[in-house]
Amino acid sequence: MDFTFATEQKFLVLIADIAFVGFIVATLFGGIVAVGARQLIHAVLGLIMSLMGVAGLYVYLGNHFIAAMQILIYVGAVSISMVFAVMLARPPEDAKAKPLMFATKIGSGAVIALFAAFVVGRAVIAHPWVKAATVVKEGTIRQIGENLLTTNVFVFELISLVLLVAITGSVIIAKRGRDNTDQQGGGV
Amino acid sequence: MLQNFVPVLILFLFAAAFGLGVLLISSLLGPKRPTAAKQATYECGMDVQPDARRPLDVKYYLIAMAFLIFDVEVIFLYPWAVQFKSLGLFGFIEMLVFLFILLVGYAYIWKKGVLEWE
Amino acid sequence: MIPFEYSLLLSAILFAIGCVGVLVRRNVIVLLMCIELMLNGVNLSFVAIADKLDSAEGLIYVFFVMTVAAAEAAVGLAIVVNLFRHRDSVYADEINLLKG
To answer: Whole-model pTM?
Structure first.
């Protein structure tokens, strides 16, 4: 990995490296905000920041399509529906008086999570990763399309069933709630 | 390879800085003489009666759900479209089956009246 | 470009942040968000390994994980909304009707 660049190229590489650190910081800081924020809407904004940081890291890993997909699905759709849920299910005002979390809870949670991360990380790093025998390095989106519709074609069809069940289930659950409130005369 | 994207990043940063800078300059330089009438939600007309912070109707949420699911569906069209020629008829039929199964969901939410807005 | 182990370390940290959130928070919406964070950590390691091995398999799994995350968000948030309409609460420890 030792290329020789012209001076302006080196400058651009330096900016790319700085942006890389920025994406990592955005990912971690956004994650911490998403976990620790008192206001729900701040937590959603932190989640969006973290997801954007991960999308930037996907670009650095050479998968532009996955990065675009991350932004379209997670930031564009999942986070927006989170915002809708926050607006629909606003907790009562007196809930703020309750203590949010205790230091012991955070400490024990962090210890357990770090232990799990340590075990998984040790296993992953200890595993000898060998490259696949036949490697065709072309555009990742072409590889995905080829693989998705030949090798994994039944999984692909099952995904449409998963999506069908998800839309049907969410409509059934949410609509039943609305009909009940309409009967009570509490509908907005 | 990656440094080719730096101009795009600079464009993003410049756009964000421009938007934030305009907001900052107008909040610093603009005259601020608030009166009660100016602070109202509408300068004329009735006062807004209920608090703005109340739960929304669930039909907004149902529309968001439909968007979420069909957004994911459209994402799956991209890799298929790029590889369309080499996948041939088999891939085309598979994608038609995929779209048909989701069309059932579309027909269902249409039948349930999710798409109607009174 | 990125060292392989660093990507895995970052994904492990992201997973740990989400895990801590699931363990300490009580709000169901925040719990769902923390699950999304954990899935993101897993996705990051999938993409890193796919990049390391030059294979598209990991990217396919990212597709599946993202789809399941979207479906989970749709159904989970519908349950949260319905729960709030019936019980006026979004806190996990107050939803104990099924507790023996």
So the answer is: 0.82
The domains found in chain C, sorted by start residue, are 4-88 (1.10.287.3510)
Q: How close is the nearest chain C Cα to the Cα of B12, in Å?
A: 22
Rounded CA-CA distance A33/A44 in Å is: 9
**What ipTM is given for this predicted complex?**
0.90
Cα angle A73-C7-C71, degrees, rounded to a multiple of 5: 25
- List all chains that touch chain B, counting a touch as 3 or more CB pairs closer than 8 Å: A, C
pLDDT tens figures, A5-25? 567 777 777 888 888 888 999
Q: Which one of A77, A89, A153 has the shortest CB-CB distance to B67?
A: A77
Determine the residue of chain A that is closest to C66 in CA distance. Answer: A73
Least Cα distance to A19 among C2, C59, C3 occurs for C2
The helix/strand/coil state of C91 is: strand
Please state the domain extents for chain B: 1-33, 55-118
Q: Which CATH architecture has domain A7-98?
A: Up-down Bundle (1.20)
Find chains touching chain A: ≥3 CB pairs under 8 Å.
Answer: B, C
Nearest-Cα distance to chain A for B57, in Å, is 6
Could you give the 3-state DSSP secondary structure of residue B31?
coil
**Separation in Å, CA of B72 to nearest CA in chain C:** 7
